[in-house]
Amino acid sequence: MSIYHKPAAEVRTELEIKRSRFISIAAPVDDIPSCQAFIQSVKDEFPDARHHCIAFIAGAPNNSQCYGMSDDGEPSGTAGKPMFNVLMHSGLGEVAVVVVRYFGGIKLGTGGLVKAYSQATQMVLDALETREVRPHFAVEIEGDYAFESDIRHWLTELNARKIECQYGQSVTLTAEVEEPDLLAERMQQVGQGRIRFKAQD
């Protein structure tokens, strides 16, 4: 897994071509559900628009499991695919773009649509500020209840995400971290060998 970039925040741009308005909205998304929620929020905001065309990479750029696109009523291949091609060439991950079109009464033709949706997507990507995403590794930490606050402290210090906790005879925490080796060192220092630490390869 390599380092990539994602949008730092939602951005909007607008383009007018032959009286058709193209409102492009790009946003950071963590996964498919958050991507779907973002797309729905745009549809709710612009319910009277003729089309809400979509392209997204809801994960790492090379993870084809989280790709998606939609022409939303435009002729097949004239909106979602050109938008997605622009996204792929950007190298960004965890990104969704919706282009909202208000039809201006003049048909653009298939070539004109491909060009318009590509341009609208490129324009909003050019306006984005991005931030670096480093790969996260799943870890599992098990120890006596006495260690729980220390374990949570170091998970927080190392910007862990998706922290979950199970209580049994001992406490088991799972999370995703960028630096599992550093966390392993901290757990050794805290537990003096009494904390069991396991990282995913």
The level of helicity is 25-40%
* Shape annotation: elongated
Mean pLDDT: 93
Q: Count structural domains.
A: 2
Beta-strand content: 25-35%
Taking all Cα atoms into account, the compactness measure Rg is 22 Å
User: Main beta sheet, described?
Assistant: 5 strands, antiparallel
The CATH superfamily of the largest domain appears as Impact, N-terminal domain
CATH classification class of the largest domain: Alpha Beta
The strands making up the biggest β-sheet line up spatially as: 2-3-6-4-5
Summarize it.
Helix 2 (80-90) packs parallel to helix 3 and helix 4 runs antiparallel to helix 5. This protein has helices at residues 32-45, 80-90, 109-127, 148-157, 180-191, and strands at 4-7, 11-17, 20-28, 51-57, 67-70, 95-102, 130-133, 137-143, 161-167, 171-177, 196-199. The chain folds into two domains: 4-133, Ribosomal Protein S5, domain 2 (2-Layer Sandwich), CATH 3.30.230; 137-199, Alpha-Beta Plaits.
